[in-house]
Fold:
Amino acid sequence: MTDATLTTRKPFLGESQRNGLIAGGVLALFIAALVVATQTGTITRNDWTYKIFVDPFVSMVDMPDLLVQTVWEGFVAGVLYSLIALGFVLIFKASGVFNFAQGIMVVFAALSLVGFYEFLTLTLGMPAGFVAAIVAMAGAIGIMFVLAVAVERIVLRPLVNQPDIIMLMATVGLTYFLIGFGEYIFGGSPKVMITSQLGLPTGSTMLDFAGGRVNIQHLDLAAAIIAAVMIAVLGFFFQYTRIGRALRAVADSHKAALSVGISLNQIWVIVWFTAGIVALLTGIMWGARSDVSFALEIIALKALPVLIVGGFTSIPGAIVGGLIIGVGEKIGEFYWGPLLGGGIESWLAYIIALMFLMFRPQGLFGDKIIERI
Amino acid sequence: MFYREAGQYKTTYQSDMAIFPLRQDRIGILIILALAYVAVPLMASDFILKTIMLPFLALVLAVIGLNILTGYTGLISLGTAGFMGVGAYACYKLTTLFPEVNILVWILVSGFFSAGIGVVFGLPSLRIKGLYLAVATLAAQFFLQWAFVRIPWLYNYNPSGAIEVPLRTVFGVAITGPTAAIEVKYLIALTFVVVLTWVASNIVHGRIGRSWMAVRDMDIAAQLMGIKLLETKLLAFAVSSFYCGVSGALFVFIYLGGAEAGTEFGIRLSFIILFAVIIGGLGSMIGSFFGAGFIVALPTILKFGLPAIGIAITGAIAEKIVVMVIGALTIYLLIVEPHGLARLWQIAKQKLRVWPFPY
Amino acid sequence: MRAPSATDIAAGEVILAVDNVSLSFGGVKALTDVSFDIKKGEVRAIIGPNGAGKTSMLNCINGFYHPTEGRITFKGETRPKMRPHEAAAGGIARTFQNVALFKGMSTLDNIMAGRTLKMNRSFFWHILRYGPAMDEEIAHRRFVEEIIDFLEIQHIRKTPVGKLPYGLQKRVELGRALAMEPEVLLLDEPMAGMNLEEKEDMCRFIIDVSNQYGTTIALIEHDMGVVMDLSDRVVVLEYGRKIADGTPDEVKRDQRVIDAYLGVGH
Structure:
């Protein structure tokens, strides 16, 4: 089509803004109606409407310490979701491949680290401690590099220019291969992350807050800080280095990048390796909060709704999306979960993402998808 | 030499449009059916029937179902196991609520429940495709799995949370439950598979199948042919989920004999079915059989075949190798033969046509 | 049936009228206040330099885009928001500039897909693929075979179209559009990227379609020779505006058209 550069029409208020206004108005009316109904006694404490629409908010206001605790928990989970999503976004931007295996790479990286450490201390007899942990870390980074090269050589190169759906299924295959391979090498039983050996803090602090107490794990704090630092470093890397510029060029157009002499293969290795390092750091922090095993697979899949909320191509989107999903599902589970019998955390993230899809299919920060003929 | 089409003239459009236009193919199908109905139940050991044939027959319907959605209509789904679970639990509820009704009817009807749920979760497919849709179907997977555990009504408030398949008889012959003979179960499952495969193949060869493929290949041009996207996609979801539902009901009622609380229909089963579709061949009926056969046979061969020829391997390790092999093979096939084993089968048939004088 | 002569067309009834249509995307105007009509049975060419909005015009006509302003009247009926499948049901068929075939399907299935709207047996007959459903298949197959004969593509009947060379793909796409038995056929650069021989074949098919079936054709084409030979009337667009409208000879002599194509001397 000759007018390919055109975008869709933009009136005074965009469609999504208009929808947002309407939704906001309806919501406001609904809340007003609820307040009136509760005050006049039309709705009593035992009505389901009260339990769903009023009770959770009342308890939020009554016990702000619990609310803060829940939000904090959600925030930390959200940071970890963001980090997985970040790996997805890096690879998607640079190669257009949706790497379904990113979540598994997190587990695989964490297992490599612990496996290496066990190998060093138990088999080679290195003294346990910080030095061995650092050597193991280097080993795990090496494994992620080998993985990046192997993926580029074996999977990406032969599949270049295939339809997206084929690429997606190839990475689903990769997910499965890594699960089988990881379980074969490291065994299926859960492992304990070498948190203290790596010098990460393990204690917790109780903060007095509004008449209650909020418990903050030092590790979670460290996780948030490390994540922030990593995102800053990546941002710098993308913005100001030669490789970063090449990456952005590839993200814009493969062909144009090739024509100015950028090696696609090299870029792919770099970007998969970067995603691998992000995965390793995520794996460490996640492993420190629970055990390291492929049971994390289910949690890793939650990065997908994060991407839908944040958009596939935006790093800030991944972060904000992760926080929305993390906080949203913790609050949902804590305040509304008991009404449904609990455990709604397993699907709430996907439902939140679906609602976003209905109103903003391109995500919060993603580019508007324009269908061309 | 034997596989020649020379001398078989198609004189009507009907004969040209037949699903098996070649006489040899028709004979081949009859032989396979005869073997499946007579020879296998007579000759095969209970072990083969139990560990290979029953899961194969149950899963092949799910593979056909997902193939209709992903292979024919181009909509990727990771919620297959969830839809299978709907079939299984629907069948369980129906047969415990109305025990006097023929269980075979309930197995079929449970497919309709699954189809209904499938349509609900397929609704977003109008606005989203590809990966977005994959996420939407993941929502179905996790929500349904949650429901199987958290809604006690579904498993009749059984304290263990598991469902136990009750004994059901048709004309005095036990069909489900612990006392049913394995041959009977096999024949029942086989009949379901034969009939439903025939139906699926009829659908994909006609107008509806063409609409699905048109949406898959170029949805914009499909609209231009007067194909309504939402209806076509939802029909694909409904038919696909129907097959998954029947598959799930058979899986529990004929093969497993019971299901633990929500664990049978987890995300891994969804993946396995997706791999079976890819390995067998996207958009191919016969490929669905190859794919299902492969994923059922591979673990058994590794677990029992390798020790038989002297290679020591434990069951636990075999399972991990199975996962690895299936993942690796999926990637390999996507690279070298995106049409899967079905394409290899076609190539073999082409070669056979000119054998033994290829030039 | 003979080709309608120029006087017939001048007197003929208008089948499709475009009135003051504008189309804009986020501030960029693709079409500005374009009006023209297409008369029953004629071959109407839409020409213009790249980016003139020709394809956007076709997209408006068959409902992919909805005009920001103005209206399109088809067979005396004005729809504010026509959807593509409604356009198809009304009798508008279309080919695309970059072939939009169903690549995984055979030639036969592609053209059969064009018959979708004419097929109405219910889902339950399709399950059986017997009786009415089969009769319907066969009747439509017969019609499709006629198109295959007409376009001389018998030898590729069962080949997946993704494997065909470009020229043949364009021909199959025309066949698929013809299978819809359209009243108006929109052809978007049917001869782009073809060699001389293929172009001649395609011209012959277009003339035959017009003569034999009396189908109204709207055509976008860059090859001026083809346009001048084939079309009864030509409308010229430039930067989304209509700059000329008339018979090929009139348009050829129009100063603004000459300027648009050759550039204005300064």
Q: What stands out?
A: The first strand of chain B starts at residue 163 and ends at 164.
